[in-house]
Amino acid sequence: MDKIIFIIIALCSTCVTQAEEVVIPPALLKQVESGDAESAFFIATAFAEGRMGVTADLEQAKQWFLKSAEMGYVHGMYEIGKMLYKEDAFVKAKSWFEKAAEQGHGESYYYLSVYPLYGLDGEPFDCHKAYALLKEAQLRDVKAAYNDHAWMLSTLPDKKCRNGQKAWRIFADLQSLYSDLEPIPWAYLDTKAAVFAEISAFNEAIEVQSWIVEDFCDIDFDADENKFKQSLLELSNESNETVDGLCYGAVRRLQSYVQRKPWREEPEL
User: Fold this and answer.
1) Which of 20, 46, 93, 149 has the CA that lies 20 to 30 A from 67?
2) CA–CA gap between residue 125 and residue 123 (Å, rounded)
3) Other C-beta atoms within 10 Å of 38: how many?
4) What's the rounded Cα separation, in Å, for the pair 150 and 131?
5) How far apart are CA 28 and CA 37, in angstroms?
């Protein structure tokens, strides 16, 4: 704790005006030179978020995240991997995710699961390889990994990749990670509806998906079944993927569940 306080004080004590060039405190640089990878990560974060008097500069952040990663700091490996991933430098990003995963970094396992799902870095589609990586992320309480795993098990067109009962167990585990004071995100409830549909619990799927459509499309459905179906029909004619993709997708899934059909979707980035 004393070290962190010292770093913050050192950085703030040399804060400069916006018109001046940003100067990293010499004491902080000395710590990096002595092999302190965490200090390099601290500098990277300051540049990435524009904190502590440092003007945001993603290119500088990238260089410092890379330095901390090269010095063996797992969080630096993950952050430089994310930056490279966003630049579509998938091969380099994967290398850093793999290094971080070797040290048990959960979010890195999550990113690695994307490669066999979407054919990145020349990998062939392999849902079961992706599921194994998602499971590693789940063991480290990465909530998005639970959600994506349950979604894929419920919606992938390839029957060998689907397992509704397993999807339901995974989603139940995801729900247990949320307290009463922390609501589950709407996107995760979308997955819950898809899981219900995959196990043929269509009434439950319709109920959950209706909440999502009401939120995404700013509409209130009538409790009367005929009026509900009429409103859904009108909404489906009005919704447009290019105007409001969230509403459009939610409506299409709700229509599928009303027709007693589970949702099928190829994985897309």
Assistant:
1) 20
2) 7
3) 16
4) 10
5) 11
